[in-house]
Fold this protein.
Amino acid sequence: MSYQVLISSTPKDRDLAENLAHSVRDAGALVLSVEQTPTRGEAIDFDLRRLLRKADEVVLILTDRSLNNPYLLLEMGAAFSLHKRVIPILVGIDESEIPPLIAELGYVRYADLRGYLSELEQRVRSSAGEPPVAAAH
Amino acid sequence: MMAEKVSALGAMAWLDVKDLEGGDLITAKILEGLDACEEAVVLVSPNSVGSQWVVFEIGAALGQHKRVTPILNNASLDAITPLKEIKAIDLNGFDRFLSELEKRIQKASEE
């Protein structure tokens, strides 16, 4: 079965999410996407629960527009409780603005995305039973 | 106070503030507590409405399909958007929650 990555963002960060989805597909993973809006009826709706369960890892795009979005924080907690690998990707956020919660979970800066994508590719290969790709020197 | 009342009913109460020790990885300990519990109570007060940890913990409980009961103490659920759809209980009516909890404990012990 394909290695699946759920990419979560707010509608305001749709372009970033689409760019990231393209890179994640290039790394060999299947992309599941969800946009968080403040108008959702339920705290965590059925579709999101289903996607969270299917995903092998969950990537959340956090910008200064979405850093305090409660739905993204809620989803982060839900993914974490399902023992999924959770990767906040920070875009344009200063070191001093990173909340303790994100700092403790660990995060990837958008500028360092290549490192994350390279690790993701190894996980995709490993899940398919393929040998790891030798690191480029 | 709330934890003591819950314990008095025969349930084990895991309190995130009390049960965390210096040096603990907070997320790991919260997950440990949630994995072990049957339901979660979230105290929504003026001190907690701005807390990212509170929202994170609620998400973690909902992710595991655990019952989450917001207890309001001088606060409105409007302050925590994702909780708006969940029936909350005012701290003044906490005895009502305890009475409902007691029934759930009894039912679980009969199963």
